Hints:
This protein has three helices and no strands. By secondary structure, the chain is mainly α. Helix 1 (9-22) crosses helix 2. The protein is rod-shaped and about 75 Å long. It starts with 8 loop residues before the first helix and ends in a 6-residue tail after the last helix.
Amino acid sequence: MSITVDLPPDVVRRLETAAAARGLTLEEVAVEVLAEHAPDASPRRRRLPFGDVGASAAGITDRIDDVLADGFGRD
């Protein structure tokens, strides 16, 4: 597969400089850069907003054993 991409002149110069320094073609360096920075096709796991419920340092989670021992939740 082949694509054509229009790049700003300063980006082309940077790719050319990198290619010359490494003994590669501009196209080879461009492919490396794109492959390194292109998003992968695997779906990302969404973080649900309630995922941190109970994680507060100001809550009772650090002393839950004491609270339950005192009878919390009993009728």
